[in-house]
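Researcher: Good morning. I'm working through a list of sequences from a screen, and I'd like to move beyond sequence-only analysis. For each chain I'm collecting a predicted structure so we can compare shapes side by side. This is the next one on the list. No need for commentary yet; just the structure.
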Amino acid sequence: MKKFPDNFLWGAATAAYQIEGAWATDGRGPSIWDAFSHTPGKTHKGDTGDVACDHYHRVEEDVALMRKMGLKCYRFSISWSRILPQGRGEVNEKGIAFYNKLINTLVANDIEPWVTLFHWDLPLALQMEMDGLLNPDIADEFAKYGRLCFERFGDRVKNWITLNEPWCSAFLGHGIGYFAPGRKSTSEPYLVAHNLLRS
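Model: Good morning. Structure tokens for this chain:
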């Protein structure tokens, strides 16, 4: 009979836009998914992430459930626009405080935090001002954002994932328009993929 090795990490994973809710709370800026999901016809029954699972207001309850399940690690993503509402520039300290609360609660419950920096929810300001992932300069903005995350959370977070499924952002978002930002093109997916690899 096969068994998992003793050092195998049992955990769960989520994405900020899919669970946090609180989409316009405490200074969070909109993301491309906010714009996309609020566009009629883009999502099933017009569903949005405005409330989602309301994880933003249920951190302690959610982590208690994780502990009860016996999870040893939890992979979550940081909403870029929650800590940098315009994608760059002024830091939203309330957003930083939310992730500090989440990370501290995980650590206090012996659950190891694993952080994804980008799970498809690009700040809308970067999409509008610089054409988002199509602009080569997005790699520099991503580096600044990543550096901020490392500085603020790196003392407790030891495992980082840069991009979640970049194919989805490139092809589904810029090839067939099924994901945000909803663009359709035969060439844009390759440009986006290149810029994501650079970031």
